[in-house]
Amino acid sequence: MMPRFKIAHLAVIATLMPGCMMVGPDYKRPEANVPPQYSAVEPVQASNEAEVSSTWWQLYQDPVLNELVEKALKNNTDIKLAVAKVEESDAYLREVGAALFPEIDFDGSGSRSRISQLGATPLPSSVPPVRNNFSGQIGTNFELDFWGRLRRLKESARAQALSTRYAKDTVDLSLKGLVVSNYLLLRSLEAQTALTEDSLKSREESLALTKRRLQGGVSSGLDVEQAQVASSNLVAQVAELKRQRDIAEHQLAVLTGDLALTIPAGTLDSLPIPPIPPVGLPSSLLAARPDIRQSEASMIAANANIGVAKAALFPTISLTANYGGQSADLSDVLKSAARIWTGGLSLNLPIFDSGRLDARVDQATAKQKQALASYESSIQTGFKEVSDALVTLSRTAEREAALQTSKDASKRALMIAENRYKSGYSGYLDVLDSQRTYNDAALAYIQSRQSRLSASVDLFKALGGGWKDPQQQAVAKQ
């Protein structure tokens, strides 16, 4: 029987392995080479609220929109795919982590054989030619992680698992943004359709008026034809707007996984502009973006893989042990006289491989450099997107205010032109120009409001789906 002190000695060696050295570089987060603050653009209607909820789409205060987002998060196929990838990476992490512990197997066998009695060496008559053989033993083959290869593998797997989670969060954030943006587009198209239909009614009334005036000898046939052209153009415009609205609804149906989706009519003006974070947000807020976190997790995994490649340059030491029993009768297998055991260490040392292992270290180092470049690029892109969103939000607010003034002025001009035409002081061409000007100005105002709302969506996406004032959080913790 294997002496107990030897078994204990091997157990101690296996236990102390995690405390051995780990080859390869330890991860250190690189400094982000970005300004400490975003561009100082003064947003219109800036809010001093300390926090914007991570459920930012609810700030638009639209029950239909809330339902669409929740349905998309539950049914969208891209989300399901991302969740499945997270489950796969978690399972891989458990598999890699299991390699740090001994694997214990049981091997049992039973056989019955007959030996020839007419062989070159005849069997004594006392030895039966038919024999039984039964054995059962437990064994282990455990790699001693002297150089940290297994621990670096687990570090890499853990980072990869985090990367897939952040990838899922990125898909989640992108999906929310797509749903909200398409919903705003749909409401904008509905508002444009309603406005155009109102303009169409006005032009049809003008067409009927010019026909009556033609019959009375006051207007010419030219006025009638011009009124007919203007009316027909708006009919075509309404048809095109309805087509675009239906396509936007179909897109929302795909995003939410509900192909039979129908959205009731609503208004764009009822949607409020949500609270806007103050100017000068610290650039460290970029760490909240899941795509940047995903890039960093990939960099951590690539950094750990350098250690895995370097560990292959050192000897691989494994512990092997087996303990069990063997006998001719199954009932004797557990008896002390039937006991068998083996134990030992194996060493595998690379001596000459023509630089193959060194090349693998160089490959892992190059991949780490690629991951670092990708991480730096994601930070720069994130910083730019936040700055762009702040600028767009500010300028679209200014544009909306100017278009509001233009729409009001064009509406007053239309009323004046219609009254002058009815009184005979001006031609119908002035009425057509005023109608066209008002319709264009009103459509531009609706589109500008949609752009402003969409800019707020882009800002929330650029900030990682939520925002919290670090100074306010520090005060709250005191």
TrEMBL record:
<keyword id="KW-0449">Lipoprotein</keyword>
<keyword id="KW-0472">Membrane</keyword>
<dbReference type="InterPro" id="IPR003423">
    <property type="entry name" value="OMP_efflux"/>
</dbReference>
<dbReference type="GO" id="GO:0005886">
    <property type="term" value="C:plasma membrane"/>
</dbReference>
<comment type="similarity">
    <text>Belongs to the outer membrane factor (OMF) (TC 1.B.17) family.</text>
</comment>
<keyword id="KW-0175">Coiled coil</keyword>
<feature type="coiled-coil region">
    <location>
        <begin position="224"/>
        <end position="258"/>
    </location>
</feature>
<keyword id="KW-0564">Palmitate</keyword>
<dbReference type="GO" id="GO:0015562">
    <property type="term" value="F:efflux transmembrane transporter activity"/>
</dbReference>
<protein>
    <submittedName>
        <fullName>RND transporter</fullName>
    </submittedName>
</protein>
<keyword id="KW-0812">Transmembrane</keyword>
<keyword id="KW-1134">Transmembrane beta strand</keyword>
<dbReference type="InterPro" id="IPR010131">
    <property type="entry name" value="MdtP/NodT-like"/>
</dbReference>
<dbReference type="Pfam" id="PF02321">
    <property type="entry name" value="OEP"/>
</dbReference>
